[in-house]
Amino acid sequence: MPLTPEQQAEIDTLRSQPQETLRTVAPGMERHLYTAHPVLDHGFVRVVDYMGDDAAICQAARVSYGKGTKSVSNDEGLIRYLMRHWHSTPFEMCEVKLHVKLPVFVARQWIRHRTANVNEYSARYSILDREFYIPAPDALAAQSTTNNQGRGEALQGDEAQRVLRILQDDAMRCYDHYEQMISEDGQQGLARELARMNLPANVYTQWYWKVDLHNLLHFLRLRADAHAQYEIRVYADAICAIVADWVPAAYKAFEDYRMGGATLSSSALDCVRRMLKGEEVTQESSGMSKGEWREFMGVIEP
């Protein structure tokens, strides 16, 4: 179950007591407040609080840059200019606080983004639930033959069933032992902070994650990318949908310039210019390595 009865009761209480406010309100984000969006088999993402909107980005930019922005005819144009020229501080004026439930191994990837405030569920103080991420059959894949940190084709038939059975059996067995160790029935019981080390990396944890929009978009650029691991990418996709409703102009610019755009090196740009002049350019004459050339060709000839 994604939300506990206690969490749902708290959310229901908060939603039943709306309050007037003089602060900026983003109508698209208001619809997401306190709504748990399911992710994976037991996980979720929900908005706890937020600050700012598209207008807040423009307000901050105009304070910073003064009359130099007066040539920009509208807020959307200004936001696109800021995104296009990598001006980051105006986007830092918006913040969001998320409540996320996720497997531990996903959390360990996520925490690499050290530009947020995080408070995680304490397994030293509380007992973790018997909830584990078990992949859907189509998410079980072999090791990629071209990428050391990626996956290839999906496992088939008996092998897929055997792997699923191992994952389920190991998770349940580890949790059984966890419960046995912390139990105080007829024994002292092992400390929770020690017993937790026996749990596998697919057990679920929860945290509050507060981040400004600039750093959130950087997170999404990496984790909503097709090359990101599936289990963190689905969380990033869920957050993308939320951000698109919160700051639609900023998100559209982000899609155009970051997610849908490409950065070219000086060598790659030189190759494009030569190609436009009709010159036949090869990897050998490009001045790029094989890896750089392969990535370059993936951009101009997807």
Q: What can you see in these coordinates?
A:
This protein has 302 residues and is of the alpha+beta class. The protein has 3 domains: 1-133 and 202-261, Gyrase A, domain 2; 134-201; 263-302, no CATH class. Helices cover 46% and strands 14% of the residues. It has 13 helices and 7 strands. The protein has helices at residues 5-15, 27-30, 54-65, 75-84, 104-110, 157-182, 192-195, 213-223, 230-246, 248-259, 266-276, 283-286, 290-300, and strands spanning 37-39, 43-51, 95-103, 117-120, 141-143, 151-154, 204-212. The chain has a 5-stranded antiparallel beta sheet. It has a two-stranded antiparallel ribbon with strand order 5-6. Helix 3 crosses helix 4. The mean pLDDT is 92.
Q: Would you spell out the secondary-structure blueprint of this structure?
A:
Elements: H1 5-15, H2 27-30, E1 37-39, E2 43-51, H3 54-65, H4 75-84, E3 95-103, H5 104-110, E4 117-120, E5 141-143, E6 151-154, H6 157-182, H7 192-195, E7 204-212, H8 213-223, H9 230-246, H10 248-259, H11 266-276, H12 283-286, H13 290-300
Antiparallel strand pairs: 1-2, 2-3, 3-7, 4-7, 5-6
Helix pairs in contact: 3-4, 4-10, 9-10
